[in-house]
Amino acid sequence: MVTTLSDPTADRVVTELERIEVPMLRLDLRDSTHSLRLDAALDRHGCPRGLLDTGAHRVALEEIGAVWWWRTPNPPSFPPVLA
Question: pLDDT of 19-68, one tens digit each?
């Protein structure tokens, strides 16, 4: 889940996912306390393979079933080298 850490709507979704025991990762792109690394490639069948590493969590891309990107009125800004 890509959203802010202080989002009441996302909080409710997280609560429900935890209740039904769905593994998930909440990621705030404005949070500078972690580094984010994404190593990704498509295999010969077009399926994503690789790793998302936040510094605190590592997730294999093939384990990701969905991404919920909750857009806020002010999207995060990135350094020019990443924009």
Answer: 999 999 998 887 766 678 899 999 999 989 999 998 888 999 999 999 98
Residues 8, 42: contact at Cβ < 8 Å?
Answer: no
Retrieve residue 10's tokens.
């996302």
Whether residue 20 contacts residue 39, with contact meaning beta carbons closer than 8 Å, is answered with no
Q: Is the dihedral of CA 67, 71, 76, 79 positive or negative?
A: positive
Q: Whole-structure pTM over 0.90, yes or no?
A: no
**CA gap 36, 34 in Å, rounded:** 6
Task: Count CB atoms within 10 A of the CB of residue 6.
Answer: 8
Burial of 65 (0-12, 13-18, 19+ CB in 10 A): exposed
